[in-house]
């Protein structure tokens, strides 16, 4: 807790000094100058003591449960005045260094036994778990001679996820049945898997293994089994966390571009019934076993949000060996 002289006290001291210079030329002024100096010192000392007696305000901060990198969110801050007099304060919340926020410093009055609600927008540019420090308060003393600097409230943390907006845009297009805008074209690829699709009439060129003899005997005509491309596949996404991924491409790094692409691939794969697993290499060795279902997108997000690059080079041979140890089932691997 620090005390700082205000501009009012500095102005009075300058005025008192100028009176002292004038008093050196006129002996009659020196007595009044000394009395005035003593009174000013007494009032300044008394004001400093009173500043330490008054109760400190309280700070309550409410952070959102999660935020997206580069997307504006709102933080709620409440300053509660516990004293029986109005106080003039300067407020600067303990916001992270890499963020955009134009609200602070805020200055104003808080009525006695009242509170101030300060809800401010903030944009965080760094993914991962971001910390908020204590709230900085600059309180003006009763006579206005001093400013008392204190830190109140608690530290806070919020999870910042990659920007999920492109995936949401895809979801909106899919719900509107406009898959042609996403580049997805559905084609039947017969004979490439053994996933049964439907029964149909026999066509010239069908192999004998396709004929369903039981159904044919019932209908007294040849019936063939139709197969569709296997949907329940395992998609393994390998994420390079090596130092070369730190290169800036546009406004964000290549690493963040890869994360955004992985989110989109994960969403498409989970939506069509495939399993998605994630393996990282290049200094960050983490493994997410394959998960399935659209509800598993939350699991993927929670796994990816705090990934960071490392200063180490990437070893693709070692990464392939790790993948074979973790995933022995046939899978499609995306690097």
Layout: helices, strands, pairs:
Blueprint: E1 2-5, H1 7-25, H2 27-53, E2 58-62, E3 66-68, E4 72-80, E5 87-94, E6 99-100, E7 106-110, E8 115-124, E9 128-140, E10 146-152, E11 156-161, H3 165-175, E12 195-201, H4 213-219, E13 223-228, E14 234-240, E15 248-249, E16 252-253, H5 254-271, E17 275-281, E18 287-292, H6 297-304, H7 316-326, E19 332-334
Parallel strand pairs: 3-11, 14-17, 14-19
Antiparallel strand pairs: 1-10, 2-4, 4-8, 5-7, 5-9, 6-8, 9-10, 9-11, 12-13, 15-16, 17-18
Helix pairs in contact: 1-2, 5-6
Can you describe this structure?
A hairpin with a 2-residue loop joins strand 15 (248-249) and strand 16. The strands form five sheets. Strands 1, 3, 5, 7, 9, 10 and 11 form a seven-stranded mixed beta sheet that branches. A four-stranded antiparallel beta sheet has the order 2-4-8-6, with no helix packed on it. Strands 18-17-14-19 form a four-stranded mixed beta sheet, sandwiched between helices. Helices cover 30% and strands 33% of the residues. The protein is α+β, with helices and mostly antiparallel strands and 335 residues long. It folds into four domains: 2-53, no CATH class; 58-161, Immunoglobulins (Immunoglobulin-like), CATH 2.60.40; 189-228, no CATH class; 234-334, 3-Layer(aba) Sandwich (Rossmann fold), CATH 3.40.50. Helix 1 packs antiparallel against helix 2 (27-53).
């Amino acid at each position: 807790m620090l005390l700082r002289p205000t501009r009012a006290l500095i102005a009075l001291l300058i005025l008192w000094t100028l009176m002292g210079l004038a008093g050196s030329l006129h002996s009659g002024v020196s007595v009044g100058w000394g009395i005035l100096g003593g009174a000013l010192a007494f009032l300044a000392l008394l004001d400093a003591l009173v500043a330490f007696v008054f109760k400190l305000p309280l700070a309550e901060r409410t952070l959102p449960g999660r935020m997206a990198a580069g997307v504006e969110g709102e933080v709620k801050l409440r300053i509660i005045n516990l004293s029986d007099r109005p106080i003039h304060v300067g407020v600067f919340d303990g916001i992270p260094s890499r963020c955009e926020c134009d609200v602070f410093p805020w200055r104003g009055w808080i009525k006695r036994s009242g509170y101030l609600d300060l809800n401010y927008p903030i944009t965080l540019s760094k993914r991962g778990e971001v910390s908020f420090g204590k709230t900085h308060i600059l309180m003006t003393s009763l006579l206005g001679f001093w400013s008392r600097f204190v830190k109140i409230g608690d530290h806070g943390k919020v999870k910042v996820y990659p920007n999920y907006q492109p995936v949401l845009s895809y979801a909106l297009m899919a719900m509107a049945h406009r898959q042609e805008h996403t580049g997805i074209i559905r084609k039947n690829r017969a004979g490439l898997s053994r996933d049964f699709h439907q029964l149909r009439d026999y066509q010239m060129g069908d192999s004998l293994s396709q004929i369903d003899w039981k159904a044919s005997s019932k209908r007294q005509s040849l019936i063939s089994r139709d197969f569709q491309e296997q949907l329940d596949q395992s998609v393994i996404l390998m994420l390079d966390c090596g130092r070369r991924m730190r290169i800036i491409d546009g406004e964000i790094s290549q690493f963040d571009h890869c994360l955004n692409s992985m989110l989109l691939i994960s969403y498409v794969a989970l939506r069509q019934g495939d399993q998605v697993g994630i393996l990282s290499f290049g200094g960050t060795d983490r493994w997410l076993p394959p998960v399935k279902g659209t509800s598993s997108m939350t699991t993927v997000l929670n796994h990816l949000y705090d990934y960071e690059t490392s200063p180490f080079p990437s070893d693709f041979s070692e990464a392939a060996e790790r993948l074979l140890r973790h995933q022995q089932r046939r899978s499609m691997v995306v690097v």
